[in-house]
Structure formats: structure tokens, C-alpha cells
Amino acid sequence: MKEGTDVFIIKAVLPVAESFGFADEIRKRTSGLASPQLVFSHWEIISSDPFWVPTTEEEYLHFGEKADSENQARKYMNAVRKRKGLYVEEKIVEHAEKQRTLGRNK
């Protein structure tokens, strides 16, 4: 907090991939009272592989068949591909069932 004012200064590290639309979201949620100032700080390599799938029996037991825990590297890669209009391999419907008609057909 700045002395003598009602201004708060918050410093945080935010990945660039998650900063798109951040300023609009902050203004919207604070009714325009807060405005961020984004400054590039540094590069950092994401240690996970975006194309990793479980292969050994131990990995299947720990992560499950589909490795449901979200892979950050894959999430960032897919977000960039969507933004650029490139193909993104993703399932739109998972575990779908037929819709059941409650009324009786005549």
C-alpha cells in the first residue's frame, strides 16, 4: 500500500499464455477500479512434455488410462493453436448417451 493514498501495488508472476484477456477480466471484475500494468520479466521452460501419455503399468496405475490430470504444457500449446486458428486434437463429447424421449411416440 502506498503511504497517504488508497492505492495497492501487487507484484506477481503470470505466464504470458494466461495473460491474454487478463486486463479486461480484471477491469470487468472490479468494475473498472483496478487496472493492471503487465511487464515482461523472464523466460522459463515448462518441464512437462505436451505429448506425454502413460506407457508403463506403474504410470497407468498412478495417472489412469487417460492421464486425467491436466498437462500444463499441452494446455498452453492447445491455447496457442486455437488462437492462431490451427487444428487442435480434442474430444468435444465424452461419455455421451442417447437422449431419451419421455413422451410416447404415436
Key attributes of the depicted protein:
2 domains; 106 residues; mainly alpha
Short structural description:
With 106 residues, this protein is mostly helical. It has helices at 16-19, 22-29, 57-63, 72-84.
What does this structure look like?
This is EFL1 GTPase. Residues 4-50 form the Elongation factor EFG domain. GO terms for molecular function: GTPase activity; ribosome binding. It comes from Pelecanoides urinatrix (Common diving petrel). The protein has 106 residues and is mainly alpha-helical. It folds into 2 domains: 1-44, no CATH class; 45-94, no CATH class. It is 30% helix and 0% strand. The longest helix has 13 residues, at 72-84. The radius of gyration is 22 Å and the shape is extended.
β content, as a range?
A: under 5%
Counting DSSP E segments of at least 2 residues, the number of strands comes to 0
Helix fraction by DSSP (H/I, runs of at least 4): 25-40%
The low-confidence runs, each spanning 5 or more residues with pLDDT under 50, are: none
- Number of domains in the coordinates? 2
Count of runs of 4 or more consecutive helical residues: 4
Distance linking N and C termini: 71 Å
Largest sheet: none
**Overall mean confidence score, pLDDT:** 79
Shape: extended
GO molecular function, one term: ribosome binding
Pfam family, one: EFG_C
Protein name: EFL1 GTPase
Domain Elongation factor EFG: 4-50
